[in-house]
Design a protein that fits this description.
Elements (H helix, E strand, L loop, with lengths): L2 H17 L1 E3 L1 H11 L1 H21 L5 E12 L28 E13 L6 H67 L5 H36 L6 E3 L21 H21 L5 E13 L18 E11 L5 H69 L5 H36 L3 H7 L2
Parallel strand pairs: 1-4
Antiparallel strand pairs: 2-3, 3-5, 5-6
Helix pairs in contact: 2-4, 2-5, 3-4, 4-5, 4-6, 4-8, 6-7, 7-8, 8-9
């Protein structure tokens, strides 16, 4: 009865291990770029912007319309002008002087071709605006991929740090348990007071609480990484041996001109400039060459007679025409002027945002470089602290066993060892994290990912 739950538990652990996906840093970032929905959304926006270019190019093509109509209606006509209203169909033919409700058949069919031979560069400016929008969408996609890669790498480093914290906490629990057994033996032999055993148990409980918190941090970090790689948190495992080694010193970095943030701001600025060029070419006359051929049929005669049967169902009177027209919206100038002023302000605002982005990146790079220098010096110091803490712990245990020391001294020494182990492992990861910050401010993660994945 007792073995069955143990067998089930072991089987569950084996199944979970088989289902677990193991990632190194490069693989986690690649998986995030492949699965994260924000990347897909940006890619689709870029595809939509590319399709908009083809739409803008269709404005150079002539417009061809075909229409056909069959109706049954009265044929009364009224002389005089009527301003174009809605809901009043037009009627042609002479005034008959009658007001009859009798109806006749009518039909019409025709083609019309309209083409704008020149537009003072308006259509080309529209195509330029569509191309600038596509470049802006492409820059947004690159920026999104860059941000996702950085966030996924940071989540991976956070998980590794939490795992190392758990490893150190487990070692602390083991030390506390060994100490508790040692104290229990000494108390039982009446070589130490019973209060020491109570203190040893308290220290073991504190170490166990630290381990629980460390495991919670691992679970939270796995949940954070799972949103990028698209795997369940319990099925995530890491390969991070390289990240536990100290990387070689890096040369001072500079901001890349192709930084995704700067490229995006530049693309948005170019889009604003393209929009302004469209407005600059909007206040020009619109010229059009138009040709039409059509045929109409009617069952009513000019003398008022109505033809019977199906007369008028089929078009029987043909016409054609060719014309050249010009339209100049004189009163559009105030509105276009206001829109141009708004476009000028928008362009200057985007230019200022680009310069602000450059300044922010310079400041971020300086901070990241300072953090890297500090992390590097700290990583060189922690092994010395760790070795000294271990020596102090061994001496404290020996003194306590020999009756020359107190338990408080041993407990403090063990806590110092645990903290030094944590600091030593985290110090190396902090160097990698600082290198990630430098690479992100510089605008190039490729070199960092290759270093971390060796």
């Amino acid at each position: 009865m007792i073995r069955i739950p143990k067998i089930v538990c072991c089987f569950s652990l084996i199944v979970a291990a088989l289902r677990a996906e193991s990632y190194d840093l490069q693989e986690a970032v690649a998986k995030a770029l492949d699965r994260y929905p924000a990347v897909t959304a940006s890619a689709e926006q870029m595809a939509a912007a590319a399709a908009a270019i083809q739409l803008a190019k269709t404005s150079f093509l002539p417009r061809v319309d075909f229409s056909a109509q069959l109706n049954r209606a009265t044929h009364n006509n009224v002389f005089g002008m009527l301003l174009p209203p809605a809901g009043v169909p037009g009627i042609s033919g002479p005034v008959l002087g009658t007001n009859s409700l009798a109806s006749v058949w009518g039909s019409a069919v025709g083609f019309q071709v309209s083409w704008e031979p020149f537009d003072f560069g308006l259509r080309r400016a529209g195509v330029g605006l569509a191309e600038a929008s596509r470049k802006s969408a492409e820059a947004a996609l690159i920026r999104t991929r860059f941000d996702v890669a950085r966030a996924a790498a940071d989540a991976f480093l956070t998980l590794v740090a939490a795992q190392q914290l758990a490893v150190s906490a487990e070692a602390g629990v083991q030390r506390a348990e060994v100490l508790q057994k040692t104290v229990a033996a000494l108390v039982q032999a009446q070589l130490r007071p019973g209060a020491d055993l109570s203190r040893a148990r308290a220290e073991a409980a504190v170490a166990e609480a630290q381990l629980i918190q460390a495991r919670q941090a691992v679970a939270v970090a796995k949940a954070a990484l799972s949103q990028f790689v698209g795997s369940p948190p319990e099925g995530i495992a890491t390969r991070h041996q390289r990240l536990l080694e100290l990387p070689p010193p890096a040369a001072p970095a500079a901001i890349a001109e192709a930084h995704p943030l700067l490229a995006q701001r530049e693309a948005v600025l170019q889009e604003a400039q393209a929009s302004r060029r469209v407005l600059e070419r909007a206040y020009y006359p619109k010229f059009a060459v138009t040709g039409a051929t059509y045929a109409r049929g009617t069952g009513a005669m000019t003398d008022g007679r109505r033809l019977g049967g199906l007369s008028g169902v089929g078009p029987n009177i043909h016409n054609w025409g060719v014309g050249f027209s010009v339209v100049f919206p004189l009163l559009d100038w105030p509105g276009l002027k206001a829109r141009r002023e708004a476009a000028d302000h928008q362009e200057r605002a985007e230019s200022a945002r680009r310069e602000q982005a450059r300044q922010d990146l310079s400041s971020a790079l300086a901070r990241a470089q300072a953090e890297l220098d500090s992390a590097w010096r700290m990583a060189q110091n922690t092994p010395v602290r760790l070795e000294a803490a271990r020596d102090a712990e061994r001496q404290a245990v020996a003194r306590y066993k020999a009756g020359l020391g107190v338990l408080l001294e041993v407990a403090e020494a063990q806590r110092l060892v645990t903290q030094s182990e944590i600091d030593d492992s985290i110090a190396k990861l902090n160097v990698w994290r600082a290198m990630l910050g430098v690479a992100a401010a510089q605008g190039d993660l490729e070199h960092f990912l290759k270093q971390a994945g060796r």
